[in-house]
What does this fold into?
Amino acid sequence: MEANTGPETYFVYLHSDGTVHDWLPVRVVSSCNMDIYTFPFDTQNCSYTFNSYLHNADDIQLVLDQPIEAIIERTNNYMATKGEWILLNMTAYNDKKNGSDEWNHLVFNLILKRHPTLYVVNLLVPSCFLISLDLFSFVLPPQDVDRSAFKMTLILGYTVFLLLMNDLLPVTGNTIPLLNVFFSICLALMVASLLETIIITNVLHNSHNYPDVPRWLRFLVINLLARLVCLSRKTPDDKATLTERSVEAPPQRPDVTETELVHQEHFGSLQRDLRAIRHYMEKSAATQQVSEDWIHIAQVVDRFLFFIYLIFISTSFITILVMWTT
It folds into this structure.
């Protein structure tokens, strides 16, 4: 509590019935232990106790000189120009502390609610806009556009925004505000989306060098997660399949001429060439199939993170609107 900054006066009011009124004006600044978990939609209950340090209850009785409703109305008139807090209610009661002597205490309980408009406009709305912009960045095709540079720019802008708006966040209290947790989750989602974009870009450009997709990964992503995000693989109606047809040499006859022997040698050479071409095409088709599997996994993961973004942003918007309106 700071020192009294009110004007000094040396007058008291004496009445014929023995009542003494001391209307000494006192202006002090005190602190209140605040619970800022729901900042800026928090409601505080501050308790103030007034008593004499020199005289017990036999010497001084502290009472209210007017009803509590009149005190609330007068207090609201004084707080009309402050703008940050709303006085919801006030209670007052006498409390006697038992000991060697009885000490009379006058306890006031003030229930205050914060005006959240300033913090919603300056903190929550820009943060929701930035995270929404990161959500729509998933529409950019990673194989044609450098999506990672766009996301990195958003992360830098969001970091600068948090540094500039740090002065509006509360620095006192026993708990961490839920708003700080919201900012941390938004930043974590942006970083996760950037890492996911880097991985997807690597898969799209180097999938032909990857080994076969593991069986557990194929079952988890292609079979389960792909159905969850409604991204099934498009299979063509007619696939080009390679069928092996054995080319047999004509039966040998005892009266084979030299010309026919030359033709048989050329036919055998052609058969070996066809088998080599078929083996190369089968190997290329297997490599292309592995590449398509990895690309499909990358697309499923990208769609899954998009849905996580969408659920988080929708939940955040609804929660902010409900808390703001109530």
Observations:
- The beta strands are 13-14, 20-21, 43-51, 85-97, 103-114.
- Residues 258-325 form the longest helix (68 residues).
